[in-house]
C-alpha cells in the first residue's frame, strides 16, 4: 500500500516543529518531505546573542536533521493546489497533505539604500553588521574631538518596538555598555538609546501587561521609549521623528517591515492581511488537505477575538506543533485540536542584562 505523501514548505520554527510532531505521530506511516532553501534552520530568537557576541553567526543555525523526514534543498516557486503539486527550483513534489510554513520576509532588507547609517535586525548577517556598526561608532566616538560628532556617534535609534525592536535595543545597549566599560575614553552615561514605536504602546501585538512591564524595565535601563512616534525624515546627519525632534545620530536600526512570504500571492487561496486564511485548526477553508502555520498563516487569535495571532516565534512554535498534530490526525493518527495558545506574560526573552 502506498503511503500518503506529506510536503512541508519552509524549514523555520513552524515548519520544523510541524515536521517533528508529524513524524513522531505517524511513525513511518507517511512519507514526509520538507522543502527549504538551505540545510539549516535559523533561530531568530538568538539574534540578540549575535549582537552581544555571546554567539557567533554560525552558532544560530541548526542543521535540518529530522528523523523520519526527507529534507529537500530548494526554493519553492509555486504551489498548484488543484493538481496538489509543489514546484521548486529542483523539481516537483506531489502531496496528499500540505503544510505551508514559508514564514516571512523583511521589507526593509536593503536598509543601506535609505541611509548609510541604517542597519536591519531580521537576519544573522544584519545582526552581525549591527554589532560591527555599534563597535565602530563607539570607537570613533572615543577618538572624536568634536563634541557634536561624539554625541551623534553615541546616539542609537531603534525604529519599531515589536519583539524584534525590543530585543534589538536591549542587545545593542548591552554591547555598548560592555564596550564603554573596557574603554576609559567612553562614559556609559553619554550613550543614548531611543526606541520609537508608531503604535500607542510597545509590543502592540502582545498583552497590555507585558507591554507596560517591558516599557517600565526599558526606561529603568535608561532607554528613551517613544510611543506614537515614527520616522519623518532621514538626513546624512540623523533623522527627524514625527514628534518634531531632530536626532543627530549615526545609527538607525530598522526592526519593522516584516511581511508574509510573497509565495502567498500565487497560491489562489483566500488571504487576509497578506497571509493564508485558516480556521482555528489551521486548515485552509475549502482545502482540508492544506494547513498553514507561522508568519504566513492568518490564524485567529483565541486571546483576542476578531484579531489575528501575532507574527512571532512563540506563536510559530505552537502553531507548527499543532499543524503537525492535526495533519497526523487527518491521516488517522490521533485527534484534531483547535489553536488555544496563550502568550506567556514574561519579558525574560526580551530584556537581557
From TrEMBL:
Q: Which GO terms describe its molecular function?
A: NADH dehydrogenase activity
Q: Does the keyword Ribosomal protein apply?
A: no
Q: Specify the FAD/NAD(P)-binding domain's residue ranges.
A: 5-320
Q: Which family does it belong to?
A: Belongs to the NADH dehydrogenase family.
Keyword annotations of the record: FAD, Flavoprotein, NAD, Oxidoreductase
Which SUPFAM superfamilies would you find in this protein's record? FAD/NAD(P)-binding domain
The identity of this protein, by name, is NADH dehydrogenase
- Its source organism is Nonomuraea maritima
